[in-house]
Structure formats: C-alpha cells, structure tokens
Amino acid sequence: MPGVPPTRFVFLGPEGTFSEQALKSVPAADRGVLTAARSVPECLDAVRGGDADAALVPLENSIGGQVGVTLDELAGGEPLMITREVVLPVQFVLAARDARPLDAIRSIAAHPQAGIQCRDWLRTHTPGASVVDVLSNATAAIGAAEGEFDAAVCAQIGAERYRLHILAKDIADNPDAMTRFALVSRPGPPPPPTGDDLTTLAVYISHDRVGALLAVLTELSVRGINLTRIESRPTGERLGRYVFFLDCGGHVADLQMGEALQALRRICADVRFLGSYPRADIHAEPPPRPAPGLSDADFADAAAWLRRIRGSGTG
Amino acid sequence: MPGVPPTRFVFLGPEGTFSEQALKSVPAADRGVLTAARSVPECLDAVRGGDADAALVPLENSIGGQVGVTLDELAGGEPLMITREVVLPVQFVLAARDARPLDAIRSIAAHPQAGIQCRDWLRTHTPGASVVDVLSNATAAIGAAEGEFDAAVCAQIGAERYRLHILAKDIADNPDAMTRFALVSRPGPPPPPTGDDLTTLAVYISHDRVGALLAVLTELSVRGINLTRIESRPTGERLGRYVFFLDCGGHVADLQMGEALQALRRICADVRFLGSYPRADIHAEPPPRPAPGLSDADFADAAAWLRRIRGSGTG
Amino acid sequence: MPGVPPTRFVFLGPEGTFSEQALKSVPAADRGVLTAARSVPECLDAVRGGDADAALVPLENSIGGQVGVTLDELAGGEPLMITREVVLPVQFVLAARDARPLDAIRSIAAHPQAGIQCRDWLRTHTPGASVVDVLSNATAAIGAAEGEFDAAVCAQIGAERYRLHILAKDIADNPDAMTRFALVSRPGPPPPPTGDDLTTLAVYISHDRVGALLAVLTELSVRGINLTRIESRPTGERLGRYVFFLDCGGHVADLQMGEALQALRRICADVRFLGSYPRADIHAEPPPRPAPGLSDADFADAAAWLRRIRGSGTG
Amino acid sequence: MPGVPPTRFVFLGPEGTFSEQALKSVPAADRGVLTAARSVPECLDAVRGGDADAALVPLENSIGGQVGVTLDELAGGEPLMITREVVLPVQFVLAARDARPLDAIRSIAAHPQAGIQCRDWLRTHTPGASVVDVLSNATAAIGAAEGEFDAAVCAQIGAERYRLHILAKDIADNPDAMTRFALVSRPGPPPPPTGDDLTTLAVYISHDRVGALLAVLTELSVRGINLTRIESRPTGERLGRYVFFLDCGGHVADLQMGEALQALRRICADVRFLGSYPRADIHAEPPPRPAPGLSDADFADAAAWLRRIRGSGTG
After folding, report:
1. In terms of Cα–Cα distance, which of A21, A217, D222 is closest to C219?
2. Among candidates A173, A58, A159, A61, which has minimal Cα distance to A115?
3. Quick one: B144 and B244 in the same domain?
4. With left for phi above 0 and alpha for psi between -120 and 50, is residue D163 left, alpha or beta?
5. Cβ distance of D230 and B226 shorter than 8 Å
6. D261–C306: do the CB atoms touch at under 8 Å?
7. The ACT domain covers which part of the protein (chains A, B, C, D) (predicted)?
C-alpha cells in the first residue's frame, strides 16, 4: 500500500549471498520478514501476487548472471516499480572451516562467475588448488563448511552465516566492481525527489524505424537528462522489436523529466516507467552540473515566460 | 488595446504601391484611417508611439528591399507583435498615360528592383526603350502620368490611382514571386489559434556557442515544429552575436509550441516572441501532416499518461 | 594466419551444450580439432596464446549467462577479432534415460537459466516434478544419464551425446529466443564484404562528456549505419568511464562504415574494432533498404562530385 | 582562365559608391580595367558572357538592398564562383559643395537606406533639414555637387570623386555595420587554402522532407564545420522548394569539408558549390579552435587508423 513501508521482503536466494547482504542494508528490512526465493521470477511473482511487499533482485553486473532475467521480468507481465537501488562493492573472501595456510589448500568451491572474477588472485595465491564450479556463493560456503572443499570463494555474509574462517579478504581482481540491486514493489506513488535521483525506463522501439534510438536519446539530451546506463534486449514476442533499459538522472516529478517522458511516450512503440528512486550513496561523484539552460531554475523561468507571452504577447 | 480592432493604420508609402494594396486586403482597414509613412522605422515608431494602432510593413522578398530593416526594427526597440500576414503575388503592370503600341515606347520608369524583376519581359517586348531608375513604384506611375516617361512599371493600384492605361499585365518574369507583409501592433493577447498558424521569433545566439543553431532546430524538430523561413542577421550591438528570424508552423497556445518556446528561452541568449497569426490563404499547400508521435492528440495523450504515472506509478 | 582457415577450435564447455552445437555448424569445424574450455576467458586466452586458431564463445542472450564476460574479455587485453557469428534458436528438450510418461517424473535437472526459460512448460506438463539446479546443460544430461535425476532439461546435442531418450522437444516458453555466438580469432584482414555484414565495436566514452552517446549515434545515423545491438558496461579500470558494445550493419570496407569509424575514432576516448563478418542467415529479415542519400551509389556519386568541384570549381 | 589573375572587372555602379570602394581594395584591381554596371544581374552576365573576368557584387547587409538578387543570381543560371570576399565598414559621410555650418543645411540627399542608417545622427545634428530620397549614394553626391541639395549622405569615395567637402565623418548610427561584397568569376580551381577560409554553398531542400535543414546542419556539425551565415529563400521555379545559402568555415580542399560536402550532395535535392576563399581580415576574431576530435590532426589520425584496421584488423 502506498506510503506504508514494506514489511515482507523476498530476495534472490539462497541465504548467505550478496542479495541478502544487500537487502540487509535497507533500513526497513531490519524490522521486516526476509524470505529467500529460488529465482528472480519467483521473487517478482511473490510481489505481484501479494505474498511479499518488496523484492530485492540483482539489476546489473550481478555475480549470479541473472540480470537479463530481472530486466525481462520487469519489462513484461504485471507492472512493478523500483523504489530503491542498492549498490554493493563486489568483495569476495576466501574462507575455510578453520585457519590454514594458503598453500595447504587443494580444492576451492566457487560460483563460476566468482571464480572468473578472482581468477588472477587465485592463480597467484593458491596456484596448487583446483577451482570447482558450484551453483552459488552460498553453496560454495556450505561446501567448505561441510568439508567437501578445502575453501570457498564467497560473500562476507556467507562466511559468517556458515561460521567460516576468513583466510583472505578483497580477493576480486577488480577492486572497483560493483553489483547493483533493485528493491521492487507493486506500483504506487514514487518516493519524493531528493535532488539526486534515478529514473528507470523500459523503452520499446519498432525495428523498422531507423534512427529510433537516436530520437530517444535526443529527447533526453535536449532536456538535460543524463543517461547512466543503457542496455538493449530483443523482445521475444515479436521479431524486430527492441526494448531498451535506460537509467536516467532525475525524478519523474521534475519538470524536465516530465517533458522527456511525455516525448518518449509519444515517439516510442511503448514506454514502461519502472520507478524514480534516490541514487545510491556509493556513487562517488555528485550528479554533473546541468549545462547552461538546463537547470531547474532555467526550466522554471521558461515556464513563467511562456505564461507571460501567452497572456500579454510580451515576456 | 487588446480585443479592440485597430482603426488607425500606417503603411510603407508612398501611396499607390504594393504596401497600400496589401493593407486594403485587411478587412478592418476598410473602416479605418490609412496613412502612408516614409520608411519602415517611421511606420513602426507610429505604432510604438501610439499614433497608429497597426502598421503594414514588408517582411519578405519585398520589392523595396526594406525587409532587413523590418526585421531589425522588430528585433530591437520597444516590443511589437505581428497579428496578421498578408501575401501578395508580385504582379507588375506596364502602364502609360494612354493606350499606345509597345514599340512606340522609348522611356520606362521603374524602381530598380522592379526593373530587375521584369527584365526579360522588357527586353523582349520593349527592346527599344531605355529603363530609368526611380525611387518607388509610385514614383514611376507619377512619372508616366506627368509625361516625364512614356510608361511605368508599377503596381495595379498605382496605375489606378494615377489613372494610367494598362498596356500589359503580369509582366514579372517569375510568375510565382510573392511579397509578404506583416500587420504589426503593440503587444497584446495573440489572436486565437485557427489550426493553421505561424509563429515568428527573433532568436539570439552567442557566437562562441558552436552548434547553437543546430540546438535551436533540434528543439523545434523534436516537437514536430516545422520551419517555413529562417534568416540570420548579424547584430550590430556586439560583434559575434547573431539573431535568427524564424517562422514556425503553429501557435503559441499549442502544447508543442509552448514546450519549444520554453526550450529556446532556456538555451538561447535571448528570444523575442514576434507573434502568432493565421497563415495567409495564398499558401497553396495545407500544413504538412504531423509525423507519428507529433500530433496534437499525441501530445494530449502523453500529458495524461504522465499525470497517471506521477500519481500512481503506472500508466 | 590470415587467409588460412582455422583448424584448432576451442569452445565454451562442457561438451554437449549449445556452444558445441553452434561450433559444429561452422563449416571449417568439420575438419578441425575441437576442444572444450572451462570458461570464456580460457577460450580466449587459448586463441591469444596461440594454442587455438579460433574460439566459439557466447555473445548474447546466452543460456550460461556469460555474455558480459565475453564482452569484457574482447574489450580488454590483447586484441581479438570476430570473424563469424552463429545464431542458434534456444531449443531445449526434456530427456531421460528411457521413455517414460511425463507424470512419472519426480526430479528434473536443469541449469538455473534453462529452468527459468522452460518454467511455464514444466509447470504445465510436469507439475509434480521438482526442478534441481545444476551447473550446466551438460551436467543436467549427465545427471539424467546416470540416474541421479529422472529427467534433464538440455540441448539436443547433450541428449544425443549421453544417449538420452527425448521425452519432449521445443519446451522453451519463448519459441523465438536465440543464442548468439561469436567465432573469435587473432586479428587479421577481415573477411570480404558480402553485402549483408555486421561490424562489432567497443566504444569508450568518458563519463564527463555529456551527450557523448548521442554524438556516437549521430555519427552512425548520418551515414546510414544501422544499429542492431547496443549494450553499455561500466569499465572497472576507472570510475566514470563507460564502454558501449555496438553491432552495426555494414562492413569496415564500406565507404560509409569507413567514414563512421573514423568519426568514432575522433570523438571517442577509444574505439576497438572487433570485426566485420557476415550476418547469420537466421535473421529472417533482409537488411533495411538505405534511406534516400545513403545507398552505396549515393556515396560513390558524392565522392565523384567532390573530385570535380575540387578540380574545376563546378560539379 | 584559372591561375591567371583577372584584369577586366565589373562592379555594381554607379561610380562613387561602396561597391567601387570595395573593388579598389582588391590588389589585382589596381592594374585592371574597372567598369560600372547598372545592376547585379548585369554584373554577373558580363562575367558569364566573357566580357569581364570578375565582378564585385554586394553579398550581405548591402546599402542598395540588392543582396537577395545576388544570391538568386548565383544560385541559378550558369555556374559562377566566389574567389574573394571584401568586407567594408559602413562609414557614411555628410558632404557638401563647401564648408558650411550644420545648422545652415536645409536639404540633404540620401539613398533611402542610407537615410535610415543615419537617422538618429541626422535628427540630432541637422534637425532643421529635410532628407530627400535619391536613387543611390552617388546620386546623392552628384546632387550636392550640382547644388540641387545643400548636402549629401554618401560614401567617402563619392565625396572625393565629386570634390565635396566633408562636413562630418562616421555618421552611421551603428558603428559596427558592415557591407560584404563578393568577387565572382567563372568556375575554376578554387584558390588554395589559407587556414582561415570560407566556403559558400547554395543548398536546395524539398519542402516535403521534414527536418531537412536539421539534417544539413547535423552533417556540418558532426564534422566540426562552423556556420557563419544562413539565409533561406523560396525558389520561384517550384513552389515548396527552398534554397539555403550557407557560409561555412573551411575550404573545399579540407578533409572535413570534403566529407561534409559529400554528405550534403547525398541528402539534399541539390547543392551548388559557390566557392572557397580567404576570410576577410576585418573579422576581428580568429576562427574558433576546433572542438576535441575535430582538428585537422584528428581527421588525419582517424584516416590512418582506418587504413590499419582495414589492412590488419587492428589499429
């Protein structure tokens, strides 16, 4: 229900992975009930069906590789709305049942993508160990806890949950890598603007309209709307139809975003509004200063001027 | 005074030229007082100073070559507003005091530009005559009436006023040439939209902003605003500042024009609104059908959709 | 070596998955040696290091979810080049050790994404079965072959390799879904144009350049280059730097593509050319007819005209 | 004949006006034969017909208001080429047969536009005098020399030719006003690039192509071609066809201008190249520094890179 904070949360399981860790950083989740689901579709179906108030699902650059699924699920079916983003640094640990020297490790369990992300570190520090693919970071931690493997590549939260000893921290090769999650609810009034928000859209473009994407970007650009992410995906339903997922700087309540959204509504085959929400703190940089003529004040001044010339013929 | 039809008119003199002919086609001028002024600045000063309610001045492709003056005068000084355009075909006549064969004509008075516009016709039909430059089409007619010249190139109205006999009609080499005039008043509420209007703007651009004109045209184009005329003029006041005169399809009261005007207000050094007024009938072609997404209905639908997603998160 | 067909191929393993099936559709692979690798980076490192001549790796919408890895690997490290794309319909089968009625199946092994893609079918036809996540489509087939599970969701080639009985074909919920693979070699002269080619680029954009993506698309659009795919990815190396992966219609040898590539080279932080190669037959639609002024003939005519005016001042 | 400096010059008469003054600033005119013609068409016909090697005609902001004629004449008929621009400050003098106090002047002869341009000065300094329209600045000077009028508003050269005494200099109200002239020849190899050149084009656009002008400007903008002037004119020959006159920064021999010209040739109904020639010194400002990616060096680097990737697949 709009205005009422969610209390029943679902997240992409299993427990002990980055999704749970991300959900725990959401304030309301402290006092809520948290349930793991097996897949992104199950998470979102729980919200759609009313069994949960909000779902925490990976959106971008996820370890589990389910990002495409999230986008496809948000773009189709009953409408849903992102109310919050959570951005986590990808920080893997190497953990084992007990403290042991790295050169004593012979087998390491890792989700395939976790293995890839720590490849250089593992080659350098555990050259004698074989890396075994497992289904999730949590599965890796469990495997180490149960002694099936000497060690696991997993999330901090997974090591804690399964009482593993952390042999090494920050073992991902790329220290800047992030995972981005979305907290998703049924549609309602968007959270109020904070001055540094993002708006996520699914924009459908017909294949036969040359320059359609250029037209979309032009509508954003002329109104000073910045784009922080764009991803194209084919839509299964009809060959030759594309959907673009856009993360735009700004809030649906802003004058400029309102104008831009109306323009996309007019020129695109379809637009689905997927939410306006505060940008996560972790983005080091402040939002770029608007170019001349594109600030909030410029938009307000122009609206006042138009009212004057419409009324009296002179501004 | 807004709403009250003008009764005191001034036009670019002298009497007996195309300007007077154009003014006489304006319905309200039938019942009004018509005065000739010596120059475009005097015409417009009469309106600015309250000595006249409206001025009829040439705007484009004029015989008298004073178009640039009109534009410069409208762009500077006290604001004025175009409330009507009048488009006249450029139809010169060859006239003389009495009927006479063309090959008996030895001297023809003509305004220099009138002479140029009828050059081929005169070469062919009066090869033995010398063409003498005079200061206006009316001066030419007077010269023929007074016997100073054998004949005059002039406007139909000039031949009538000075009781000349018309030796030949439609002698301009280009039968499609038009002259366009503007009826100009002090600012007030623009005339209501008719569904086929023009809006005239003076848009100032700073020299140092590369691509500024491209930006202006993009703002118009994305909102489906068509451009029927564009002219650049340097502004004397500061080197490197340009003013563009734009005639745009649409009315200041339209949603799309309103959005576009606000955008120009934001991104340009300055914008002067010079009026929204009905397109003159003489334009043979109807306004082009708006491209997909750019019709009035599309704009209305998009505005309604935005209200829905702002309110409930879903459209 | 350029011109010499590759003979040693590596593909994303394990054997019996869609990657192997895709590789087998490449003519030269018939007479070559095919080796499975554990991950996309290992595939590409084999080519970079000279241990293989070509690698077949998933590029888009892959079952294994490794697409991002492929893109990141192609964008960084030693340059590689795509010489061929292979597009396979995503056609899952349900297979078991022997023929059995669907309602007798209690457990089904499936890669998590395969399970998601067949979710509706499984719910409808095997409502009593539990779906168990396994690490790959091949693992699923092996699990069924060894009796660990009653059935497997897998690729046709996996069912054949492990001598499974196919209980149902075409069980993916979305019959139009495709997986797209790339055959990747060390750089060399691109394959000759066929008249229907794609060119893949990795385009780097600095975060602080507003409108940079718009600029990129404009350069393509003005030269009539169509875009069939675009994907943005953050680059780990420096915050605020983005890389876009573009699939463009046309070949590096084309006049228009040559102009466009030069333009991207000029305006982007960096551009990596990732290959020009024939578009796979499976795309039902022919390439769109170029807009007026954008055909090959138009480009050739314009080049000839320029030579004339440069030489003699008139075209 | 290309390469041979012109020796027979024609200019827009009568003698003693700004056109003659402008022509005398052209070095080759020192040793040439200078002839006045009655109109711009006569000037250009003299060149087309071989009776003159070059014509000096007003191009912009001219006193005589014949600019439109020049443009129309250049756009139609046998091709001609601008080889040089001459920019003169509009500097009027008030001159009389002999020295006399300003308050003794009762009548002043002036071309109508000269009168307008000096209106404020005349109102202030000769409030008791009546201004009489005459056909040219030279006619005004002659009228003063012959005693028909007490004084004349004319060009410095006119005062000198008719041995008038200059009563006041620099009497134009706008001290920044300029007149721009073109030296026009039959087509030939353009003069070599100087690093600061202009290229003039007549670009034809079909009325029914929405956004055509935007497309033209985009082609210029993406190649860093700056626009210093744009003017639209309807073409008489067919209703609904427009011609735009563009002055662009750069030379036809430049890489970037060559690309841009080819693009216009492709997308426009027609393009007429009207010449590349050095920018006149009088423009105070140096040409703007090219934006990143748009310098000559950037274009050369990109061409070299394209050759590398076409040859070896990697840059």
Report:
1. D222
2. A173
3. no
4. left
5. no
6. yes
7. 201-278
Residues D30-45: tens digit of each pLDDT: 889 999 998 899 999 9
| Torsion sign, CA atoms C184, C186, C187, C188 | negative
A208 confidence band (pLDDT: 50, 70, 90): very low
**Which has the closest alpha carbon to C212: D214, D293, B234?**
D293
* Minimum-distance CB partner of D285 among B174, B232, B240: B240
Residue A137 lies in a domain: yes
C125-130: long-range pairs with CB below 8 Å, 24+: C125/C94, C125/C168, C125/C171, C126/C94, C126/C102, C126/C151, C128/C103, C129/C105, C130/C106
Q: What is the pLDDT of residues D215-242, one digit of tens each?
A: 898 999 899 898 878 877 766 554 456 7
Asked if the Cβ–Cβ distance from A213 to C234 is below 8 Å, we say no
Q: Which domain holds residue C276?
A: 190-315
C304 within some domain? yes
- A42: enclosing H helix or E strand: helix A40-48
- Residues from chain A that touch B293, judged by Cβ atoms under 8 A, are 266-268
Contact between chains at A217 and C217 (C-beta distance less than 8 A)? yes
User: What pTM was computed for the model?
Assistant: 0.86
The radius of gyration computed from the CA coordinates of chain B, to the nearest angstrom, equals 23
Chains C and B touch (3+ CB pairs under 8 A): no
Query: Does residue A296 sit within a domain?
Result: yes
Q: Are residues C277 and C206 in the same domain?
A: yes
Torsion of CA A50, A51, A55, A58, to 10 degrees: -110
Alpha carbon A105 to chain centroid distance? 35
Neighbours of chain B (3+ CB pairs under 8 A): A, D
D and B touch with 3+ CB pairs <8 Å, answer: yes
CB contact under 8 A, D230 and B227: no
> Given a cut of 50, is residue C208 above it in pLDDT?
no
Confidence check: pLDDT of B296 > 80 = yes
The reply to whether B242 and B293 lie within a common domain is yes
pLDDT digits (tens, 9 = 90+) for B127-142: 999 999 998 889 999 9
Within this chain, do residues C304 and C212 fall inside the same structural domain, yes or no?
yes
Residue D218: its chain B contacts at CB < 8 A? 214
